[in-house]
Amino acid sequence: MTDTKNEHIREICQKLRPILGARADTIWFAYLREDESGKKEIESLLEIYSSQLLQGNLQEDKKLLIPPSKEKAAGEYYIGDAIYDGKLLFPFGLKEEEWIRHINIFGQSGAGKTNLSFLIMRELARKKKPFLFLDWKRNGKDLMTRPEFEDLLVFTVGRNISPFRFNPLIPPPDADPKAWLKKLIEVIAHAYCLGNGVIYLLQQAIDDAYKKYGIYTGNATKYPTFRDIHEWLKNYPAQGRETNWLTSAMRATASLCFGSMDSVVNSGQNYGMEEILKQKVILELDALTQSDKIFFIESLILWIHDYRLTRPERENFSHCIICEEAHHILSGERHSLFGGESVIIVAIKELRELNQSFVVVDQMPSQISPVAMANSYCTIAMNLKNKQDVSSAASAMLLDNEQKEYLGKLEVGEAIVKLQGRILSPFMIHIPEFPIQKGSVDDTFIKRRMKTYFSNFQPQLVEGSENESIEVQDKASEPANTLSEREKQFLLDVFNYPRSGTVERYNRMHISCRQGDKIKRCLLAKGLFLQEDLPTQNGRLRIIRLTDQTRKLLENQEKSISEL
Fold first, then answer.
1. One short Pfam family name for this protein (predicted)?
2. Is the Cβ–Cβ distance between 111 and 382 less than 8 Å?
C-alpha cells in the first residue's frame, strides 16, 4: 500500500515539475523523509497545488504529459511548441540528423495533418532542402503564392496543365537493368494485385523489350513503354493455365496504356528526374485511379531508391519525400500477398542510409505495416477516432492506458510526439496554423508559373508520346530568332541528308555524340524538326524530319537560314 501511495505522490510531483521546477523535487524528497503525519500534510499541500496550478482537481480528465527541457526540445526545424496543462512553453524542433530516420504523422481527417505538412515544407524551404510532396487532394498548389515558395514546381500528373512524364521501364542511371526489371514487376503486381503466373509473363515481356531496345548492352537511344509490353502480351501464344495469367497481365498493362496514366508512363525518355530531386516539387495525383496512384508512387520511390543506391553519398540528409495516404503503399494487407516484406517497404527502410527522408502522412495508423511503423524515429499523433487506430498509435508511442485516451481528445492543432532518442517520453505540442489562402491558385496560375520551367529546363518534352499535349509545344509555332552556327549546320545537314543515321551525321559534322544530342534537343524545343522511328529488320531506326515551316524556309534559296 505504501509503495502504491509513494508512486502516486511521485507522479503528482512529476506533473507539477514543469510548473514548480526544482521545488517539485524538493517536495518529493521531503515527502520521503517525513513520518505519516508529515506525509499527510504534504499530500494536502500537493492537492492544493494541483487544484490551483493544473486548472482543477487531479481526478478530472486532464491531458498531462511531462514536457522535455527547453534545451532537449530545441531543433533546427521548427515543428511546434511544447505545451503543458494548456500553456505554451517553448519551441520544439527536429534536428538535421533525425530526418533520415523518418517521420510518421497520424490524425483523422481535419485534425491538421496537411497544415503540419505545409509547416514542414516551409522549414525545408527555409533550410534550402529539396522535397517531393505526393499530393492526393490538390492542397499543396496554394503554397505557390507564398514568397518562400516562389521556385516551387507543381506538376499535374495525368493532366496536361503541367504534365509529368515518368517511364518506370527506364532504369535509373548505373542501375542493373535485370535487378530493376524484377523489382518493377513486383511493384506492378503489388499495385494491380497480380499473382505469380502474371509475374512470369511480365518478366518475359519486359526482358524481351529490354533486349530489343538495347537496354542490357547500354546502346539504347530510346526506351520501351508499356505499349510495347501490352503489344507483346497480345501476340503471346498462351496455352493452358497461361491463358488466365495472360488475361490478368493484359488487364494491368491495358490500364497503364489508357487515359491519364497513358500520358504519364508511356514516354520514350525520362526527363530531368535527377534535376527533380534538387527542386521543391509537388505532384498532384488526383487525376489517377487508386491502383494507378499506387503504381506511380511506388515505382517513383523505387526509382529514387535505386538512383541513390548508385551514388557515393551516405547518411547525409539531402532530400525529403512527404507521402499522403501512405497506407495505400505501406499496407500490411497488400504486401502479405507475396509473403515477407514488399520491395517498396524494403526500399523505404533503406532510404535512411541514402540521404533520403520519408514522411508518412495518414489517418489510419492501424493500416500501416508494422515494419514501416518500426522504422520511424519520430511519431506525431493528432486526434484519432477509430479504436484500432488509437491502439496502434498508442503502442508505437509507448503510451500507458491513461495516456492512450488522450489521442481521442486532442483539439485541432494539438499533437502528441514520441521520439526514439533525445527525448525518451512522449509529450504534447501545439502546432500553429499555417497562413495560407486556400483556393488562391487555379490551373491557369499553375500553367503560367510552370511555363518557364518547361521552356528552359525540359525542352526534350516534345520527344514524348505522340498524343502528348505539352505547354512547351506552343513555342513550335514561334520563330527561333537566335540559332548558333552549329544549329544552322545541323539543319542544313538534315535538309541535305534526311535519312542519315545519328553516328553518320555527327561524323560528317565533326562533333561528338554529346554535342550533337544537345544541339538536337535545342532544335526540337524550338519546333524546327520532329523525330520518327522507322521499323527495320534489326529493330528501329530513328530519323529526323523537318517541319513544313522549316523545310519551306530552307527550300527558298532567297532566304537565309538565319531567318529561322
1. DUF87
2. yes
Q: Residue 395 in contact with residue 355, Cβ under 8 Å?
A: no
Q: Which residues pair with 423 in a beta bridge?
A: 421
Q: State the Cα–Cα distance between residues 497 and 267, nearest whole angstrom.
A: 27
Q: Per-residue pLDDT averaged across 216-240, rounded? A: 90
Residue 78: its pLDDT value, please? 97
**Are 292 and 336 members of one domain?**
yes
User: What are the angstrom distances between the C-alpha of 328 and each of 291, 392, 451, 495?
Assistant: 9, 17, 32, 52
Grid cell 535485370 is found at: 178
- Which of 312, 330, 313 has the alpha carbon at shortest distance from 321? 330
Report which secondary-structure segment, H or E, holds 67: none
What is the bridge-based pairing of β-strands 356-362 and 378-381? Answer: unpaired
DSSP string, 386-397: SHHHHHHHHHHH
Q: In terms of Cα–Cα distance, which of 136, 60, 116, 106 is closest to 385?
A: 106
State how far the Cα of 500 lies from the Cα of 498, in Å rounded to an integer.
Answer: 6
Please name the amino acid found at residue 92: F
Q: Does residue 326 form part of some domain?
A: yes
Query: How far is it, in rounded angstroms, from Cα 10 to Cα 21?
Result: 14
Q: For the chain, what is the domain count?
A: 4
CATH of the domain at 536: 1.10.10.10
Do residues 155 and 218 share a domain?
no
Say if CB 232 and CB 208 are below 8 A apart. yes
Q: What is the 3-state secondary structure (H, E, C) of 501-538?
A: CHHHHHHHHCCCHHHHHHHHHHHHHCCCEEEEEEEECC
Give the tens place of pLDDT for each residue, 408-432: 999 999 999 999 989 989 999 999 9
pTM over 0.85: no
Domain that holds residue 228: 168-269
Q: Are residues 301 and 246 in the same domain?
A: no
User: 93 has which bridge partners?
Assistant: 78
291 and 425 inside one domain: yes
The CATH number of the domain holding residue 442 is 3.40.50.300
On whether both 289 and 435 belong to a single domain, the answer is: yes
